[in-house]
Amino acid sequence: MKNILSILIISLSISCSSEAQNEQQSNRVDLAEIPDSKLDTATFAGGCFWCVEASFDQIKGVYEAVSGYSGGETKNPTYREVSYGRTNHAEAVEIYYDPTVINYETLLDIFFVAHDPTQLNRQGPDVGKQYRSAIFYHDDEQKRLSQKAMKEVEESNAYGKKEVVTKLNPYDKFWIAEEYHQDYEKKNPNDSYIQNVSRPKINKVREKFANLLKY
After folding, report:
1. What's the CA gap between 124 and 114, in Å, rounded?
2. Domain residue spans in the chain?
3. For residue range 150-179, what is the model confidence (pLDDT) as tens digits?
């Protein structure tokens, strides 16, 4: 299977610390650039994108999950800018999926297991609006299904009797994160953050959706 990044990325930033990175652009992912594509797109934010990306990447029907930034005003944001809360962007993940294998409603179910939608502007140790829970809907049907899912999660008391604070916003742009963020969990399995924060979330999804796993 071809990696979607090799198809879509013209240039990617390599180092957060380099001056050159501030000049490079993270290109908006455009599904139209994939010839004869029958994939649909979902865009979610649920805290650190390493956790969300890895949670979805293991699911059948997900062609690729890409880490990036969405929901803010700054063009071509860098990780440094986003992590310091300077852009209003959230760390987000764009998911390319085959709707004949998995539907948007199931992706929403996974999303609400992969993170805690009742935490306002944070996920566990990660604090700030850049770690907010958000759904960036691509059309009216995604908006309707998202509203329905949010209501069901709240009524189920899956997170106690807490209010679901997930933001529901129309999709605008998605800026691909720097290369070293892509597949971070796979590349850095021994990283302390991955082991202590990401892995429990990924395993929670694996347990809940065992029948949907690729491996």
Report:
1. 12
2. 4-212
3. 999 999 988 988 999 999 999 999 999 999
